[in-house]
Specification:
Length: about 230
């Protein structure tokens, strides 16, 4: 019963299953392989052959790429109810990034043949997946424009707001980003330096916009961050 309630909860949160009858959920999940990952464990690695696409059931993963000089760039965070690596699997390519758990996490994975069978039986899933791919492309384009046109502080504000929207939990102090997020992670995510992130967050803390600790960030005044991101 608890397992079914959990699957139903993921079903309701995942855009992948919009329009799919709930009674088909168990069958779809049973075709996949479920696995649990602890903090820091790797789901798949950049450059390896793409064997499976994954739906995150619990926790989250960060997708990152390595530059030639060895510097890490965080591409995005994959949250519960979201898919990753679907396009790579369908195209028979290598994984374009590394997925690493940022907390205790659980996934279900399907290989290419199984996903094609699922989508043949449930065409709405293929339509939903196409929509998700388009959203990811839009997100990449928006972040590219931010890198080209905005000051670092604006990019950092947008990054915190984006992560807060996806992974925020309301508390008495504000909206807590509900996973371990270091200042170095923010630097890797926004294409800047640890020094710049630390300096900016310290300034915002003095203004009462954020509260931060070791790998813990609370957005105390989201409206101030929104205004700053829009106007600089």
């Amino acid at each position: 019963m608890d397992s079914q309630i959990h699957l139903t909860d993921i079903f309701s949160r995942s855009d992948l299953f919009v329009g799919i009858d709930e009674d088909k959920l168990s069958d779809i999940f049973s075709f996949g392989d479920r696995a649990v990952y602890e903090w820091g464990e790797t789901l798949f690695r950049e450059g390896d052959p793409a064997a499976k696409s994954y739906l995150v059931l619990k926790g989250r993963f960060k997708l990152s790429k390595l530059h030639e000089d060895g510097k890490e760039a965080i591409v995005r965070y994959i949250n519960p109810g979201e898919m990753t690596a679907a396009v790579s699997v369908f195209k028979g390519k290598n994984y374009p990034a590394t997925a690493q758990a940022v907390g205790p996490s659980e996934v279900v994975g399907w290989n290419r043949e199984t996903m094609l069978e699922i989508m043949t039986a449930n065409p709405q899933i293929a339509i939903n997946l196409l929509g998700l791919v388009v959203e990811r492309l839009d997100d990449i384009q928006n972040r590219y424009l931010e890198l080209q046109a905005e000051r670092v502080e604006q990019r950092l504000a947008r990054a915190l707001l984006r992560i807060m929207k996806q992974s925020g939990r309301r508390t008495d102090e504000g909206i807590l980003i509900d996973f371990r997020l270091s200042r170095q992670d923010l630097a890797d995510y926004t294409g800047t330096t640890l020094y710049t992130v630390s300096r900016t967050l310290s300034s915002w803390e003095k203004k009462g916009w954020v509260r931060s600790g070791r790998e813990r960030i609370i957005v105390a005044d989201p409206h101030a961050l929104v205004s700053f991101a829009e106007t600089g």
